[in-house]
Amino acid sequence: MGAATTVAAAVAGILYGAGGTAMAQEAAPAAASAVAPESLQEVVVTASAQGVKKLDASYNIVTVDQNLIKEANPKSTADLLKVSPGLWPESSGGQTGANIEVAGFPSGGDAPFFTNMIEGMPLYGTPSLSFMDSSSLFRIDDTVDRVEVVQGGPGALFGPGQMGATANFILKRGTEQTTGAVGVTYGNEGLWRIDANTGFKVTDGWYGTFGGFYRVSEGVRPPQFPADQGGQFTATLNHELDGGSLFVWGRVLDDKNQFIVPVPVIQNSTGTSFSAYPGFCPLKCSYGSWNIQNVTLPTPTGGFENANLANGRGGNLYYFGVKYDQHFGDWEVMNNLILNGGGLDTNALFSGPSPRPLSYLLYGCQVPQATGYCTAAGAPVDTNNYGIDPKTGLVTYPKTGTGTGLPLSYNVQATYAGSGLAVPANQDVIQQGWWYIQKSLSNFADELRVSKSLFVPENILTGGIYFAKYSMNDNWSLGNEMLMTNSPNATAINLQYLAGTSCTTAPAPGATNTCHLTNSQGILNSNNNYNILQHGNATNLAGYLSDSWRISGFLIDAGARLENIDAHWRGCGTNNASKTTAQLGSSFDLWDNKVPVCNGSWEYEHYLTTRPTFTGGINYEFNDHMSAYVRANTGNHFNDFDNGIRGANGKYAPTQTLTNYEGGFKFQASWVYADINVYKRDITGLQYTQTDAAGNSTGITSIYGSTAKGVNFVGTVTPIQNFVIRLVADYMDGHYENLIECAPYFNVAGIKQCAEFNGQPLQRQPKWQARVTPSYTLPWSDGDLTGFITYEYVGQRYQDQTGLTPLGTYYMLSAGIVANVSRHWQFRVQGTNLTNQLGLTEGNARKTGAATGLGGVLLARPIEGQEINFTVYYKF
Q1: pLDDT, tens digit, for every residue of 490-505?
Q2: pLDDT tens column, 3-49
Q3: Is the backbone peptide bond immediately before 368 cis, with ω within 30 degrees of 0?
Q4: DSSP state of 28
Q5: Model confidence over 537-581: pLDDT tens digits?
Q6: Which residue of 180, 403, 559, 836 pairs with 387 in a disulfide if CB–CB is 3.0 to 4.6 A?
Q7: In the predicted model, what is the mean pLDDT of the chain?
Q8: Reduced to 3 states, what is the DSSP secondary structure of residue 21?
Q9: How far is CA 200 from CA 145, 203, 275, in A?
Q10: Cα–Cα distance between 189 and 171 in angstroms, integer?
Q11: Shortest CA distance to 436 belongs to which of 350, 376, 495, 555?
């Protein structure tokens, strides 16, 4: 070790340069450190008992200040996470509702292995629920001073115990001098936004801030109503104590955001590239329109309620937090709490079957169709059409395997909703699920830590208790397939035919009664929906011990956590015992004659389990600009109300557990900064249950595992003064294992199949990712001018666990110019996807397996097209 240290120190001395110093950048907040991000001397507070220098942190952590946040130009809170290698935020769905994958952690929806925190406290008691990821609970604005993003390591020990990744947003503090800024932004997508914040002295020892934003935007994919509308307000108060501090903060959020459904693209024969579907621009088009904006949907209790697509996935939330830190001699006490709640409703379209001609939907191959739609025997290749139920002889849609078309004698009349004009038989149509989820959340969490030096000053023992109590109340109306034109800003389509005395018999000559296949808004199927009411409340209680001991150049830490979750859930409409089917409209309505409604019975679940977590790491500091470390840790991901608890009938899925091994090397000189992390992650307890377009389970639950290895890299190079090249990159090689059966599913054509997951790559995670940003600053006597450009490469990914739908690779170019004029003015022009590249983040999440339909059509979420913003700031 002594020889190795001598050699390493000699090499570092040559690279670093005699008398060299770390690059000076804009100072970070005094609350964390007086050293800037991308400095190994910076003190980080996330996943640490007392705060630790980056040089000594034996885990992967990335920090970005306000300047780097703006340079990243995130399209959403989730999109900012791309500053951390290995995080893959699928921000193509809009401002909210992003799926967030962490390299080596298998997930395909929401964000189960990612937690958002403000001032070290999680925004909800569990990382995600159905229709809720923690990035949807938060918006980035100028009240944020910096963010620390941690992967792995001791993140599984402290606070909420997230074994994946955690982003900790640290708010600005007030200071002696009053400062602030007001900014106005205009975007070429019809965006107008105002940001304002200020910090000031209240009285001796007391300082405050307040600020926020308000914006309205037509959206890069304009839906004919505001895509984003709303704002956020934050206020803080910090007080200096003798040997400590008190920080109080509050926030309100009222924001509505368009939730973007996948759009059609054409996949080439090899599945590696994609092109535009005729008549549908993949980068800037949306199905949303005035025509389909307002609907009336069935409720779980048997009535109807109004829903508005313009409300999107909107947050109406409040937050209150208190952070207290105090030294008593060689004792330190820290208590941190958060209280928050509110609504997080979702009004959105969700993908259904592939688009098709109207005549195919109604009559299948009984009328002429284009080549490829019918077999040689004259049967439909895709059975997601109308048909006659062979058991009852009645019209049915969809009935897997029987969608061969209606007899021509039904003579269905199709008209555009609103105008009443006739729809041509060759009109391209699509069925989208119109889903309405009403979600009310509450959360209270508190963490108490006590630290004391033990035996020697360099040995610090920390004990902590983490407590979280949280609840949800949900009202779901899922399914509600709406028939509409397969076109931007779609128009709903109404279907009806004439029958005799009732719709239970086939049409006959002289029929005069109208049978409605859809309602007047184009809803063609609310039957067999997933309409539920559910309530959940849970308590998480964890205790942990962590010991950190510095011995010469070594910093050794080890810790253990024991956590208990006690969750109660009740619901109706969730199983056959708690629901019945009902005719909600008249007997001539076929679209709502078998709607599931709650029958007064309730299903109950009580999930109770306790699991340990362990971690240990060794960091060696060669000198004040180079270190290396190794670490091992376990971790747990508990079941939540929507995943593993609801519908389990007491047979709960096993806790998902992690075994993680990692090591890293950090180095900084006057011209280079490098942080390299390698890892191996094994996870057990994964579960798979496919759901259909209405949200209903379609098969048994499968339990299996995964394994992954990879490399994360963050670095900067300054070859000449004022010229910086920043690189964030990762490589991940992971696959599924230990699935002992063939997992069943229904493919895009409605045919039942099964697939082997073993050996398939981890769902939707790129094997390679890289983002490189060269920037150059030109100073002058009264300001400076900075230009930068970002090249982003995203490697091959696959839609689901079957590995049958590749999503291709893509690159994206972004750039910006920032001019600081005197001490008061800043002018900023930034753009993303400047070359309008077509890249996919997600395929058809409602369809397992090969999801390419007739004509090579894939329903997918492409990244948004070119967006350019111009901002003017006045600073004081």
Answers
A1: 999 999 999 888 887 7
A2: 433 334 433 443 443 333 333 333 333 333 334 457 899 999 999 88
A3: no
A4: P
A5: 999 999 999 999 999 999 999 999 999 999 999 999 999 899 999
A6: 403
A7: 90
A8: coil
A9: 15, 9, 53
A10: 29
A11: 350
Residue 247 near residue 326, CB atoms below 8 Å: no
Phi, psi angles (nearest 5°) of residue 362? -85, -45
Q: Mark 220-243 as b/e (b = at least 16 C-beta within 10 Å).
A: bbbbbbbbbbbbbbbbbbbbeeee
- CB-based contact 677:663 (threshold 8 Å): yes
Using a 10 angstrom Cβ sphere, with 0-12 exposed, 13-18 middle and 19 or more buried, the burial of residue 780 is exposed
Residues 373-408 as b/e (b if ≥16 CB within 10 A, e otherwise) read bbeeeeebbbbbbbbbeeeeeebbbbbeebbbbbee
Q: How far apart are CA 102 and CA 362, in angstroms?
A: 44
Burial class (CB in 10 A: 0-12, 13-18, 19+), 560: middle
pLDDT, tens only, 368-397: 999 999 999 999 998 889 988 877 777 887
Which residue, 609, 617, 650, 644, is CA-closest to 633? 617
Element (H, E) at 437: strand 428-454
Q: List, as one string, the DSSP characters of 772-832.
A: EEEEEEEEETTEEEEEEEEEEEE---BSSTT--SB---EEEEEEEEEEEETTTEEEEEEEE
CA proximity to 228, closest of 241, 215, 239: 215
User: Which residue's entry shows tokens 């963010």?
Assistant: 147
Pairing of the two strands 179-187 and 867-875: antiparallel
- The three-point CA angle 357-361-365 to 5° equals 85
| Alpha-carbon gap, residue 491 to 416, rounded angstroms | 7
Partnered with residue 246 across adjacent β-strands are 239, 324
Pick the closest to residue 695 from 294, 351, 302, 288 (CA basis): 351
- The label of the residue with tokens 């709406």 reads 482
The beta strands (E) that lie in 329-363 are given as 331-350, 356-357
